[in-house]
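User: Can you predict the 3D structure of Hpt domain-containing protein? Sequence below.
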Amino acid sequence: MTTAPVLDTDALGRLGEQLGDTDMLCEFIRRYEALLDQRVERLQRALSAQDHEDWMDAVLSLRTSSAMAGAHALSTLAARLQDDFAHCPLSPVHWPGRDCLAEIMGALRQLAAETARQLRLFLQQVGVATGQKT
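Assistant: Sure. Here are the predicted structure tokens for Hpt domain-containing protein:
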């Protein structure tokens, strides 16, 4: 598991400034959180099918969307996994063993759940600070 902070609140603040609206920031975070499990499941499917191309596409999607949403630890883990799998020979791809794959997915799921929890807390704090319901 990574030691990076789960959320980068500075990145969330910058995103809020770019969007120019707290409601838009909250909606972006809600959409990211709603799609997070689907992104992790796509990684699981790619691993199960040993589909290197889909894995690389899915891990890039998780990495970039997480970075945009301030999910620093998840983005960092996805970047590390992207680098690790990018160095696998393509013909044939040498996939980690079953135990290692289970460990990778367990770490991803655990971190995704913690990220979602902390994003919900962030949304609550934003709502309290602005006097809005989130």
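The helical segments are 9-19, 22-49, 52-68, 72-86, 98-130. Residues 98-130 form the longest helix (33 residues).
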